[in-house]
Amino acid sequence: MPLHPQSLAMLDRVHRRGLTPFHELTVEQMRHESQKMHFGFRPEAPQVAEATEIEMHRADGPSVRARYYRAAGTGNVETLPLLVWYHGGGWTVGDLASYDVLCRELANLARCAVVSVDYRLAPEHKFPAAVEDVDFAFQWCVEHAGTLAIDAGRIAVGGDSAGGNLAAVACLMARERGGPQPCFQLLVYPATDQRGLRQSHTLYAEGYLLTQASIRRFQYCYFASEAQRTDWRASPLLAADLAGLPPALVLTAEYDPLVDDGLAYAERMREAGGDVTYSCYAGMIHGFFALGKFFDDANRAVAESAAALHRAFHRAG
User: Fold this and answer.
1) How far apart are CA 115 and CA 107, in angstroms?
2) Angle at the Cα of 5 (from 302 to 308), degrees rounded to 5?
């Protein structure tokens, strides 16, 4: 279908004459603009039972900060399922504050706890620092289930864009390790192949919020070499085998350079025997998911995601 009127309205705002293109900003300016967009277009923050900062300490590396949420009406004693959330932002921008409202919504709608992970960002911390942090965070949550009052057998992972990439990689790493695995993966317009070879990278290269120039800038920040881009921890679509992974919801936007990569990942998981639901939001652009004050379909997509999480938690229980 054509671009949704709300997508057109957002693009008119973003591409006003005289504004410096996002990929030409400094990293600090990129982070500020990203936060400004999230703060300006996210819904009002719903009340939750708990929203606190936590620190995940490890013996052989830096600690990882996170924000811990519990659904409204659950108190702090009831054992809940958990979503470990990895925010988007090209491994370079994004933060806990920008995704606070989304994590509250997912906690309440799925009636679960959420741990939103403040993984290390590039260019200060190159690949695979973010991968190491998200893998550690999942393992930490399993090991500290009692402290968090969550069910270690019902832990899902999820994220949007770069966070969707990291959630997919976390599942692959858990499978390779042979230990506890997530019970579900929520992949929102995930970056699954850093090569950018599919048609959507050409069709939507410019003018649809996430541009090829921005993708290249993020990659320049994140990777120390071209060779790292084809490491399966950077491009999970290039993993040799996608069998044995948790059930998944892969959610994409029609007018997004990453849409074909997300579909390809869903198809490969399904071909490998995985339980995969694929949902593409017609007329939407990259980034819409967290901007429910502006995009009506964002609220529908969050509700779809929460319902999928709720079903997965029920099955795992």
Assistant:
1) 10
2) 15
Q: Six-digit token pair at 92? A: 């370079």
Active site residues: 161, 256, 286
Concatenated DSSP letters for 175-207? HHHTS---S-EEEES----TT--SHHHHHTSSS
Bridge partners (DSSP) of residue 51 are 69
| Residue 216: domain span | 5-316
Across residues 215-225, what is the average pLDDT?
98
pLDDT at 14: 85
Mean of pLDDT values over 292-314: 98
Per-residue pLDDT reduced to its tens digit, 8-64: 999 998 887 678 999 999 999 999 999 999 999 999 999 999 999 999 999 888 999
Structure tokens at 210: 């996430």
Determine the Cα–Cα distance for residues 293 and 29; give it in Å rounded to an integer: 23
* Inter-CA distances, 169 with 96, 115, 130, 166, Å: 20, 17, 11, 5
How many domains does the structure of the chain reveal?
1
H-type helices in the chain, by residue range? 5-14, 27-41, 100-110, 129-143, 145-148, 162-177, 199-203, 212-222, 259-271, 296-316
Give the per-residue pLDDT at 17: 64
State mean pLDDT over 201-228: 97
Cα–Cα distance list, 227 to 48, 194, 232, 233 (Å): 44, 10, 11, 12
Question: What average pLDDT does the chain have?
Answer: 97
Site of tokens 């973010």: 130
8-state DSSP, 2: P
Can you give the CATH number for the domain in which 42 is found?
3.40.50.1820
